[in-house]
Design brief:
This protein has 536 residues and is of the alpha+beta class. The chain is 62% helix and 7% strand. The strands form 2 sheets. A 5-stranded mixed sheet has the order 1-5-3-8-7, with helices on one face. The chain has a 3-stranded antiparallel sheet with strand order 4-2-6. Helix 4 packs parallel to helix 8, helix 6 runs antiparallel to helix 8 and helix 21 packs antiparallel against helix 22.
Amino acid sequence: MDNSPENGLIKRLFTVIAQGMKQFIQLWSLQTLTDLPDRLRNLWQQLIGSYWFIPTTCVIAGILLAPLLVTIDQHFDRETVREITFAFTGDDEAARAIMTSIAGAVLGVAGTTFSITIAVLSMASSQFGPRLLRNFLTDTPNQFVLGAFIGTFSYSLLVLKSIHKYDVAFGVPQLAVTFAIIMAIVCALLLVYFVQHMVHAIQASHVIQGASNDAIKNIHYWYKDHCDIQHQRDIEHHDIEQFQNWPATPIYPPKSGYLQQIYLESLATLTQDYGGVVQMRINLGNYVTDKNVIGYFYQRPVVHPTNQQKTATPHLAVIPRAPDGMFWQRFAGCIRIEQRLAHSDDIAYSLGQMTEIAVRALSPGINDPKTAVNCVQSLTSCLSIMMRRQPPSPYHFYIPAQDNDVTPKLESKQQRLAILAVVTHTPKISDFLNTSLGEIRRYAAADLMVLKALCQAIVDLNYAHINSAQQQTLLHELKLIERAGEDNLSYQELVDDLVAMCQQAQKFILSNDAQHRYFNYVSEFDAHIAQALQTQ
């Protein structure tokens, strides 16, 4: 009996399940709790980003609401219901006819709204780009309208099932039918709202504003209002200049795809368990394969002072060790890699949406330079906010927990210092400027309107610069705009107009009081006309 194939298979199955549960507890018991808010927020974004979540919620609400109201009807005084002016007081045949009409009508309207949504998505994909489809799919009003229709349909079917012919007094759920009538009227109003909302949603200005709001929200998430003391302490930490001399182990991603999230708390805990520092060499949104080196694990020397500090377990010092199989399994849980580029807290992703709209607007098939100009202006607003705020520090530290047996007096003498744990790659303002305005410049090299808008954007960004490095970046981009116009504009008059504006902008930026003056470009032709009018 014990040696039968069935018992051996069951035993192996239980062994595999036990090992899997043990690994699951080891991997997620600590790091999931440390980054629980970020993980829950990512899960919520994935649910909202799916088109089925809100409609499914509405269907479930309708399924639960129908038996609830029917049960209330059975224990409710019928005479009180008849005193309500707008309440339904008909017989079972009238109730069945009304519920059948409501169910059929809302299902037909739901199909109409779905057809309109598909048509809008098709047009948005051709005009704004396929990567902008998520903004339409995650539009909460659209999902709620469709959910209200199919939720009302589900509710009507269940109420229709509860209408009994044999007993008019208790077989007609009057409150439930009344609520269905109210929901039908609400659905009719939602249809009008849906049409009005979709008309505004397909406008280029609305799409650009939505992408700009996402970018600003991500900027506020990563960039601080001012340079704080903690940031200065991080910059002066002694391990920052020494960790690259420690023994290094290349880090490979667990699978191919786009890097969507780095859970810093979990990664910091992992580095301290193995006594080292993890340096990430890629940014959020970058595509990697399973053979790419995305970073390095630097193991601290045994004589490093940090190794002598006690951990949360009393009298236990950190013992550095090389990465093993458990290290790679835990590291796979510290990052999130998706097969497709999706919405995240990545600033470059939000700025790239506006850049894609501008580039597609400049294509010969669309030829809408005004939309490109609007994108340039929105990008200028986002970059201006970034230039005025404190960029995120690439250095992340681990602060050990105090031992329970340490007295407050000893605690003051042996105060713990933050331990360098993770070093991330932080893009600079010049990188964002090159991938946004610089990308538009390369596609708008033969369009004077867009080139002049880019020149004006550089001047507007100069009002927000806070150091000479940012100013030199703006001057370099201004020079590239001038060169693009000289090499691609078809008429010499257009070239002269752009060159004159770029030179005036350069002179304005280099002036000492540029941030307190107004820049007004006056072309040579306009100046000549103004002078002629003055002489007359």
